[in-house]
Write a structure and sequence with these properties.
Layout (H helix, E strand, L loop, with lengths): L9 H7 L10 E3 L6 E3 L9 E2 L2 E2 L3 H15 L1
Antiparallel strand pairs: 1-2, 3-4
Length: 72
């Protein structure tokens, strides 16, 4: 297995790690309900994407409520 011949300086180590930083998520405003949402994803509040309703949010909320009611 290969081993380094010399110790790496702090400058070289920092140069290597220059691209390791995390980037902030791309958050935008939903055009329908004006709530924050991730870009290129359906809105979790109203269920729209690209001016179309793609997720039935009411059915998901009802299903979740029925499931929690059954566990009690």
């Amino acid at each position: 297995m290969a081993l380094p011949k010399r110790r790496l300086s702090h400058a070289r180590q920092g140069n290597r790690r220059a691209h390791v930083a995390l980037s902030a998520p791309a958050v935008m405003e939903c055009p329908q309900c004006n709530s924050p949402k991730l870009s290129h994803q359906a809105c979790s509040v109203c269920g729209t994407y690209n001016d179309r309703t793609v997720v039935d949010v009411d059915a998901i909320a009802k299903k979740k409520a029925d499931k929690s009611k059954g566990q009690q």
